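pls ignore typos typing on phone
acetyl coenzyme *A + seq
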Amino acid sequence: MLVSENKATLTVGGKERTYDVLSGSCGPDVIDIRKLYGDTGCFTYDPGYKSTASCESALTYIDGEQGVLLHRGYPIGQLAEHSSFMEVAYLLLNGELPSQQELDEFTWTITRHTMLHEQLATFYRGFRRDAHPMAIMCGVVGALSAFYHDSTDISDPEHRIISSHRLIAKMPTIAAMAYKYSIGQPFLYPDNSLSYTGNFLRMTFGVPAEEYDLHPAVEKAVDRIFILHADHEQNASTSTVRLAGSSGANPFACIAAGIACLWGPAHGGANEAALNMLREIGTPDRIQHYIDRAKDKNDPFRLMGFGHRVYKNYDPRATVMQKTVREVFDALKVDDPVFETALRLEEIALNDDYFREKKLFPNVDFYSGIILSAIGFPTTMFTALFALARTVGWVAQWNEMISDPDQVIGRPRQLYTGPTERDYVPIGSR
Ligand code: ACO
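k done
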């Protein structure tokens, strides 16, 4: 970061103080207020962190006004078009695109970490069969630290990289097993001859009794979905992972915390909610009713898959998603009216003053559920796939944080509005 020539001045209690303004490589400058409390006795107030940069990061850049998303400088559209999820994972972890040899070695390493400790299969059996896959993933990923404690010394860079590889590699196995458990089918072991994504699809949809027929268009589409979800700057779940990690917690526990946060319908759960909403709408003639409900201040209903904290323009991932729906529908010869409903809903919303004024555009979740459903994933698995892909971003961000010599425990402050000090009243006198 650079200290800009501009300074920020703040007058508190009639006294003026000057603060440095820091510049990154692109994006808004930040005012360095680290000394503010010491100088003035005041905190800043920013619930939801709408104006707060919580860290310095060189991984991902978003320009929400322009609808730009870059990983290590590379536009998401180019990565989705030309790259693979393994290559993007390497890029996020290491900062540069790999040579062929580097990519082969990385893929080899990840492939050879895909199996789970055999005892974890027993762990699954403790869950109810109807448990949500995200509930299982929170539990199983958290439990990994009990199985792989030989890689939890976070002060050792080698431990950090081994646990990162383990997490990326085992996540497809964990997610697929969560699905298999819910439908009562046997778990499938990974097959090292397949790609990362092909392996996940086989473990999810294959059965031990017969060969799994991997559809190349499906493999490509899911790999692309993984790329689109790999990282997204300091979103809620990534910030959760960083905050958990800032205390020195082991990476498996931190990623489990990220999964818990991602599960919420305002975050990763939105694609499940978006598809449920589109199915509930059913036919294009019912769209206006839902648009009216979304605009009604007295109705808690929101158009799921619409709006974003950062994007005030079309989410560039939604553009790729929309194109991918067409590819998958063509390849699998799917004819699901839900896509027509989605396209029509998007058109109506984008021409509606409410959505235009509030800059509410489709986000990545608007179309992803349609593709995943066409491929055969039940809605409950959507967020699990998101967690699988986002694990790459989480571990890359966690590594970046732990490697930062200035890293300290995250500890926000508050504006206290509760009772002031008062004396305890015995229960008989209340
Ligand atoms: N439908 C209708 N109105 C909306 C929507 C929506 N989907 N999203 C925002 N608004 C309205 C709000 O009611 C608010 O109106 P007001 O100014 O009159 O009070 C205004 O737009 C701003 O909304 P906020 O909630 O303050 O915006 P914020 O940045 O906090 O929230 C969020 C962003 C949570 C994503 C929100 O747009 C939303 O709930 N969307 C639906 C859920 C969704 O799709 N989430 C996925 C996010 S992407 C991801 O996690 C991968």
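The chain has a mean pLDDT of 94. The radius of gyration is 23 Å. more later
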